[in-house]
Design goal:
Layout (H helix, E strand, L loop, with lengths): L22 E9 L5 H11 L5 E7 L22 E9 L4 H17 L24
Antiparallel strand pairs: 1-3, 2-3
Length: about 140
């Protein structure tokens, strides 16, 4: 079993810190309406198409919603139930492997369109996504 390694940052390029490091791509979304159990099951099925998929749902309700927006440095709470972070990770080298993983995460991101923020579709700024923004 491989050892756990933290992955900080998000950018659309291969990361190479030696033989032990892998490559990854991150995308994110904000969810404004609950996703049904049926749809979540479909999302899980889509996730299983990838070898090492990662999906994190960070809720933004509860106590956090009681704190006035101007009192903390996090303005993204209004109308957002949670943030979803998508990640694909791979060890294999080459453009073909990179393109396969990039295509998978782009397909998942497109698949999620009906369930996430709209007009505009929003993303978590620290997850710099060159598919969505000009940096």
């Amino acid at each position: 079993m491989g050892r756990s390694r933290p992955r900080w940052g998000a950018y659309e390029m291969e990361t190479d810190a030696g033989d032990d490091a892998g490559k990854f791509k991150v995308k994110s979304d904000f969810v404004t309406e609950p996703i049904s159990k049926t749809r979540l099951e479909e999302i899980w099925t889509k996730m299983l198409e990838e070898n090492e998929p990662y999906l994190a749902m960070s809720p933004w309700g509860g106590r956090m919603s009681e704190i006035p927006e101007g009192e903390i440095a996090f303005p993204h709470r209004a109308e957002n139930l949670y943030m979803i972070g998508y990640l694909t990770y791979w060890d294999e080298d080459g453009d073909e492997a990179q393109e396969r993983h990039f295509n998978w995460i782009r397909e998942l991101y497109e698949y999620m369109t009906p369930y996430v923020s709209k007009s505009p579709r929003a993303a978590f700024f620290p997850y710099r996504d060159l598919d969505a923004y000009i940096n």
